Task: inverse folding
């Protein structure tokens, strides 16, 4: 894996991340393919809207269908029929957010499946084994995602566990697979700084920031984004995990982050909330009933080129599958296009103007 | 609308139905687009698998979003972004099968919406007005779908009502829209014969047979199919309504029917039952867990070309939207391909061989 920063505009960066399965132009948004599919989308449609990489969830795939099944079917790319890059998380975050019971120990975490209640154990070794079986292009270290709020003492203990696991993940790293470290430390700047220093000592292909957008006030999140970005090595990709509100992304790109993922565009699509160049739109609104116009006149996606607001409202009210499809295509296209234009503005030295234009619309 | 029979093999016919929006090669299967979308499919995908015509349900569209809304959005074709032919039913069948309360009167039927309990009235005039607003290519007369079982007396009274409505529908027929009559008469051959004679006297662009597959034994259904087909005018398309089991279709094509519709391929797809060249397959079966092979090695559809049985099983077990999409694409492709091959066999004088080969697989 090779990362090149091609242009800078103050702190924001336009880069290229080269992998064996293709290049990713940064700042990049990664659609989330939770259980081996980006919900409602076919791989062909993902390519058509220009997705260069997707994220898949190790926790979900480990439980169903199981990483060994996926390995026997030729790995995640063959399984999904998606030949472009895939980043897999380590499974840690879902264990903390989904599993009913969990017990954190020094060598890993015991947890109960949210599907059938069965007991499982995930440690650094297991996290790397599973990600090897999935054969993703970028693997993430297992981390202990510190909850909000946490005392300084708790956050520090949790951070030391994360760092210990990170070291072990590095030890078990897989041939031909990039490995990213994850910065923790809750809202404490000293811990975030310590976290970065220790991770850089271990040495990773990229650095992610986790433990944000877990319930803290937005200003706190923005403070930590601005504090942490400049600490991260400039020659490696910087990935802000799980944050995908476009207003937050503008702040994070401004601070120097390169990679993003979030279920927001796909989940909102299924709930009928659509992102447009004039702000968010709830497609179920009565006023759209006989509206012949496209959802977003400035959008070039399949949905906006072919269907009226009236039809989209009808499909949503009738709970049709095509509603989820057309809405998801639009929201993901809008996101990917937003990131492409953001990248262009950085290259052209126009990022502050881009941000000033879009911040009031997307925030 | 023009109908030409191009080839015959004993009683089976290969024809072409020409409309202003394109030709339909018969025997033809019409996918069902209940509420303004063939469930889980985009119009582009329907074209890709070779659908030449779809059926839409007047009852559903009248209630939601309303035929006037659709008219104001440019008609059903524009609404759905489907430029090929559409056949609309009259709404009668759904009133009988879905609405909670109904009162049949000589001039039409009063019914209660299954959506919100509101009261509505549908007579021959209203049925034609709604179908005009939808701007379908082929409209159906309003008929009284005789339930099974019915006494001869009841079936006869019901038939007379159907014939009276048919006459009125003809009177109110819409410019540029073909109109098909519907044969009723329950399981009584004298009534079916009478029904055909009276309808032919009125004169329609095509003739449909209704009131079958409503609970009667299969042998009875087959008897009526064989009895009725030869009574119908040879120079007009013959449409067997709502029947789409492929075994039944073989019998009906053998008897001389040309057009078919059924929710079976789409509904079964969503429930994980898939049609293949080796018979029906339930995709959830444990044995498919790590199966690398395509669903049907003889199938050329998008699903079979790109995904394994193992992946299709996983999507189904995870209740993913992509499962319904890929399964529907496959089932509809299988159906349309089956009908294309059946047509070819008629042209080549090989229909008996085609039927002998497929009957044991699809029945």
Result:
């Amino acid at each position: 894996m090779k990362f090149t920063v091609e242009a800078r505009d103050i702190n924001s960066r336009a880069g290229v991340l080269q992998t064996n399965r293709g290049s990713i132009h940064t700042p990049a948004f990664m659609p989330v393919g939770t259980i081996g599919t980006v919900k409602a989308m076919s791989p062909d449609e993902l390519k058509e809207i220009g997705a260069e990489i997707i994220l898949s969830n190790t926790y979900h795939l480990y439980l169903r269908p199981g990483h060994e099944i996926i390995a026997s079917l030729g790995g995640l790319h063959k399984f999904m029929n998606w030949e472009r890059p895939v980043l897999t998380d380590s499974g840690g975050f879902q264990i903390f957010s989904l599993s009913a019971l969990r017990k954190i120990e020094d060598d890993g975490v015991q947890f109960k499946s949210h599907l059938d209640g069965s007991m499982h154990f995930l440690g650094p070794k297991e996290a790397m084994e599973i990600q090897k079986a999935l054969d993703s292009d970028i693997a993430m270290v297992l981390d202990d995602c510190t909850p909000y709020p946490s005392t300084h003492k708790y956050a520090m203990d949790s951070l030391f566990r994360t760092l210990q696991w990170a070291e072990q993940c590095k030890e078990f790293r897989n041939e031909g697979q990039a490995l990213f470290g994850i910065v923790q430390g809750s809202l404490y700047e000293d811990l975030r700084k310590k976290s970065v220093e220790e991770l850089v000592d271990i040495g990773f292909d990229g650095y992610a920031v986790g433990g944000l957008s877990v319930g803290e006030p937005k200003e706190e999140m923005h403070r930590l984004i601005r504090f942490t970005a400049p600490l991260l090595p400039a020659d490696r990709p910087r990935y802000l995990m799980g944050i995908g509100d476009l207003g937050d992304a503008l702040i994070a790109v401004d601070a120097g982050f390169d990679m993003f993922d979030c279920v927001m565009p796909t989940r909102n699509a299924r709930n009928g909330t659509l992102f447009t160049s004039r702000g968010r739109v709830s497609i179920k609104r009565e006023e759209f009933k006989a509206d012949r116009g496209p959802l977003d006149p400035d959008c070039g996606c399949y949905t906006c080129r072919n269907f009226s607001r009236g039809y989209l409202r009808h499909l949503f009210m009738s709970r049709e599958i095509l509603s989820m499809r057309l809405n998801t295509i639009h929201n993901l296209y809008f996101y990917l296009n937003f990131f492409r234009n953001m990248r262009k503005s950085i290259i052209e030295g126009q990022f502050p103007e881009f941000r000033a234009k879009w911040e009031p619309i997307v925030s």
